[in-house]
Hints:
single chain, 274 residues, mainly alpha, 2 strands, globular
Amino acid sequence: MSQRPRTYLGFAAFALINFFVMIGLKYGHLEWMGTHEAVRTGYTVTGSPANAEFMAWLVVGSPLAGMILIMFMPFFICLVFGEIVSGEVAEGTLRTVLCRPIRRSSLFAAKVAASMIYGMCLVLFLGVSAYLLGWAFFGRGGLLAGGTFEHPMVAWYGQGPALARLCLSYVLTAVGATTVGMIALFISNWLHNSLGAIGGAIMLLFTALVIGEIPYFKPIKDYLFSTHLLMGQKAFADPIPWHEVAYGLKCLAIYIAALFAVSLAMFQRKDVLA
């Protein structure tokens, strides 16, 4: 995995995204994403909320984060998850490995673990790089967090609570990203085609997003994995809706466990001569 150039595409892309967000925050008045609710509700904001905590919040908790976490993050996660099996099938190396006296379950679990570590590292890099850029250009401080378009709010957190909420948000974001990646892994294990796995996972993601916005399907919206992909934004609510966070984690954990079990069963029955 580490020798494939596509592994580092996500890190390069998020470094560029964070750089341009920093430019926008410094020269393009992106502070409105944190202050628009305060101004609308009659509060007076003196000075700029721009700092390391604010920039780390921008890429995970603001309205801008929806595009990053729904479009870019799943794509780069699926690049790795979708090729971890089908890539070796295409190169012919998986057949050689499976001919050896090894436990297929252990091999598959190692591949899934490596993919999950990659996904967590990618989400962590998004947050750490944003925080370090913000620290270098604006310094550190408290966090003025605005809400999203669907859940308007405004809150101020000191530096300690802000860091704790940011860490929680990125952990929850990593769980959502892993779920999309497991869908790509399942399709990859089924089709033996990396492009099909990536495209299929992204297609299912956007299909689920569309279904969740149709009123007729409202009763099943809470059971769709796409509903909980932005669960990390709940970390900035005051108080944190722990029951909603727990439900979202349980829902995503069921998806991950089910996809892992089905994919493992398919991998164990794979014909090495095919």
